[in-house]
Structure of ABC transporter:
Amino acid sequence: MKLLRRRSHISLDDRLKALGAAADVAEGRIAREPVDHARAVVARAGARAGLSVDHTAVALAGATGSGKSSLFNVLAGGEVARVGVTRPTTSKAQGALWSPEGSGPLLDWLDVPTRHVVNSDDLAGLILLDLPDHDSIELSHRLEVDRLVAVVDQLVWVMDPQKYADAAIHERYLRPLARHADVTLVVLNQIDRLPPEAVRRCIDDLRRLLAEDGLRDVPILPVSTVTGEGVQELKDLLTELVTRRHAWSSRLEADTAGAADHLIAASGGLPKSDLRVPDHDALDEALAEAAGVPLVVRAVAKAHRHHAVAAMGWPVTRWLRRFRPDPLRRLHLQRPTTGRTSLPQASAVQTSQMDSAVRAVGLEAAEGVPEPWAAAIRRSAREHHDDLADALDRAVAGSALGMERRPLWWRAVNALQWLLFATLLAGLGWLLVLYVLGFLQLPSLYTPTAGEVPWPTTLLVGAAVAGVVVALLTRGLAWIGSRRKARKSARVLRQNISDVADRLVITPIEHEQTRYTTFVKRARTASS
């Protein structure tokens, strides 16, 4: 009979690092107990790795009357442990040492005060521990068993034909240690009390129970300390164990895998599908509405037309524009600023649509992720909810809407308008001179004509009509330009709003998703 040994291609150090990393990223996301347990396993592994690896600590554990103390004496070659019949007698674990040199720090770490040296070289490096009864009526006995079962290198469960099916040992110890098949051995003791056929039935039934516990391949060794049957085979297995000197690392690998399984279970299991990158087009649209982007875009168009008329309108009437407020100035958006705008607050409907869009992005990002990590991802979407309104307003205030620079052709049209206005004044002045000369009955000046119309009248009327026509044409061009300016400003505003969505909603979600994928990767490494 050979002890199980399944070596992983992942080193113990890498497993422990992965377990520690998984516990760190799971902090605050899952229940505290599995995180603390994982960290305790990492700490315990570090402590055990620093102690003697030339010694193997093997614990004999069992129920009252299972005969483990008798088996301990047989293996130690003398009456080392006191044997009881009807009640537990071992109150504190005691150890038998083969080649005890260098084992002191390990025994101190195990907190085993009672130590017996065995003068034999056949099991060199073995530290055999006789534990209290796990079903003792004394709480301190059960706590001692729990403590040592969690730290020894190899577990030998000693059972008897009467109590091997006791639910206490299966539910309290064997089932939780399903990952520890490589460091577990089951001894069916006291087989001298049964006929051979009954022994085979007991072993078959025990194997079935162990399979239900997740320990399908654990060796089962029938033993009798009275007849000596199976004792030598047990010694051979222990010899193989201490010769290999790998039980301590196998135990730590099993502890690491078990702690990783515990983390994964507390995390709701592994993801059902690949994580989704949330599509935030709808979020951008809702945030843009809440930030007043449509209002700003309309104001940009109106402001462009306002400036165009003020710059290219007919000089006779353009001064009236001074009495009409600049739409962007009213909103404090005439130029990029780090301050606040005068935009009205989002309405209840806009706020509700924004909140719904944020929730929808969180739900989409958490799709396929088990709880409680899904809840963490959903929470991350609203992590900066209280900052959204202010950030959106500042994004609008800091947007370069392109209103500072005015087209060069505006200057040319403006010069043309003033030229036409000057022509109108020249025609008007000429006519006034002719009127004064006629009124004073002075000799009239020569007045050329354009056809039958005098040039002064032609200049006056022609300049006025041309000025109005140019003004009307520029209004049409300004309307076309305002639409183009509005589209450009809308792109700038929506890009800035999208940046806010990325920074305050999408990035926290992606960080949480990255944290979860890191957890899954590390937990899988530790559990493999």
Summary: The longest helix spans residues 455-527. The radius of gyration is 45 Å. The chain has two domains: 56-229, 280-527. Residues 280-527 form one domain.
